[in-house]
């Protein structure tokens, strides 16, 4: 498995910033921010649903079969805690819809303010 060092990842991020400035997309969101925001919006929406709703049942469902050999792909649900961590969200914060909406947008607001 190929890994990159911290120095290489910092270099990559600085290159990405330079390219964004050159291309004139300095204040715009990148695709990762948009994807994380939409994932958190859907997660909060489904978590607030009654437990008998089909989307809620599917999200809480755990398959019986094991995953295949090799490096398993990341599931949609594994991305939710990662997105919550980047935005400093608490696990049960989705219960308050208004607060969830504001906080799930936090990274977007911080990134546009910094640029």
Question: Could you describe the 3D structure shown?
Answer:
- The protein has about 120 residues and is mainly alpha-helical.
- The protein has helices at about 5-25, 30-45, 55-60, 75-85, 95-105, 105-115.
- Helix 2 crosses helix 4.
- It is flat, with a radius of gyration of 18 Å.
**Mean pLDDT score:** 77
* Major sheet summary line: none
Low-confidence stretches: none
Listing every helix as H and every strand as E from the N terminus to the C terminus, the arrangement reads: HHHHHH
**Strand percent estimate:** under 5%
Number of E-state strands:
0
Q: How does the overall form come out from the CA principal axes?
A: flat
How big is the Rg?
A: 18 Å
Which features characterize this protein?
115 residues; mainly alpha; 6 helices
Compose a concise summary of this entry.
This protein has 115 residues and is an all-alpha fold. It has six helices and no strands.
């Amino acid at each position: 498995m190929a890994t990159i060092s911290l120095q290489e990842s910092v270099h990559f991020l600085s290159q990405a910033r330079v390219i964004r400035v050159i291309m004139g997309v300095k204040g715009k969101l990148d695709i990762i921010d948009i994807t994380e925001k939409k994932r958190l919006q859907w997660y909060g929406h489904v978590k607030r649903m009654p437990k008998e709703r089909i989307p809620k049942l599917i999200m809480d469902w755990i398959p019986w079969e094991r995953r295949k050999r090799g490096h398993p792909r990341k599931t949609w649900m594994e991305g939710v805690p990662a997105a919550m961590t980047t935005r400093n969200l608490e696990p049960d914060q989705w219960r308050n819809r208004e607060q969830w909406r504001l906080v799930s947008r936090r990274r977007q607001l911080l990134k546009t303010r910094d640029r």
